[in-house]
Amino acid sequence: MQVPLYQAKAEFFRMLGHPVRIRVLELLQNGPVPVRELLNEIEIEPSNLSQQLAVLRRSGIVISIRDGSTVSYALAGGDVAELLRAARRILTELLVGQSELLAELRDADTSVGPPL
């Protein structure tokens, strides 16, 4: 039985729904990164990073590259980097909207005067 597209999308976003995975993907946007550098940037236990990389690798979003004893990871395609850029744009728009609403609320509070 085929999984409905909306369910497949939900699973995809669920898979992305971990801060370490998002951080790894951000770090990989500019090209392959050795595991030791990922560990330095993310500052988590090696076993935890390994688990998160395994999830990303199984999903097909990242690939591993071995060069001698060094293992690096890279994005499997450019679409993931575009998705992260889109998420950044959406979050920026949301935060700008919230900031404007907060300013309006503060202005409304000062124009009403002190409570009785």
From TrEMBL:
PANTHER family: ARSENICAL RESISTANCE OPERON REPRESSOR ARSR-RELATED. This is Transcriptional regulator. InterPro entries: ArsR-like_HTH, HTH_ArsR_DNA-bd_dom, Metal_resp_trans_reg, WH-like_DNA-bd_sf, WH_DNA-bd_sf. Keywords: DNA-binding, Transcription, Transcription regulation. It comes from the Bacteria. Coiled coil: none annotated. It comes from Streptomyces virginiae. Residues 1-95 form the HTH arsR-type domain.
